[in-house]
Amino acid sequence: MGSGKPERHSQTKKRKGLSIRNPSKKINLKKEKGMNKKTELSKNKENQNKSETSTPASASQQLSFFINEFQSANGVHLSSIELESINETCFVELSQEFGHDVMALGNHMKTAFGPSWKQVLCEGKLMEGNVDPGSPAVLFISTSALRSLELLRGVRSLTKECHAAKLFSKHMKVEEQVDMLKNRVNFASGTPSRVKKLIDIEALGLSRLKMIVLDMHTDVKGYSLFTLPQVRDEFWDLYKDFFHQRLLEGHLRICLFGPTPNAVSKEITG
Question: How far apart are CA 168 and CA 120, in angstroms?
């Protein structure tokens, strides 16, 4: 019996040793996760700062960049007739004064819509025959719910009378968005997949749509609307189904908001 007690005592020590080592591993893992999170936030802030301080691309640069991205992503070459229809007037050139600062989006929109900006972008009443419910004048398209909300903060001063529509899947049910789109909407912001779904079920209208703002902001991994694999494909499906023809007919303008890589040096390849 005497020999059994030390064994139990040594086993207890071993168990205690294990119980001491395991929490330290957990603490280290938590610290590592915390450091990774801080690094991610730091990179995100760095990317945002670079985006905001970059010089907006001219209309011709946006045109060249967009056409090349469209042809490359879809494996097609636009016809000469299409290339004649898609020209510099189809793209909104942003003010150099405000750059890509998200909080200056409201000023950019006022400039883009000219004297009619207040009537088109701010008023909240439906007007039969002129203003259909659920049909925004401006649609922001980005890679995530978080970025969609950031863009809407930039036009908050213009959405006091008419609330903007949030068109993404995170924490938002389709049914809730359908109800929201029964009212007047001047600004809408969302991700390609949810935007397309709401158009498909005829909840989101396009009768008033004058501009789509494509967010070129890159995430911590360097992905953007045109490079994040699944989102990129969803965007081009949305564009081809609902926006391309409107652009050709001159009923829609595009604004590339954020840095457009190699926009200056790229030439249209057709």
Answer: 24
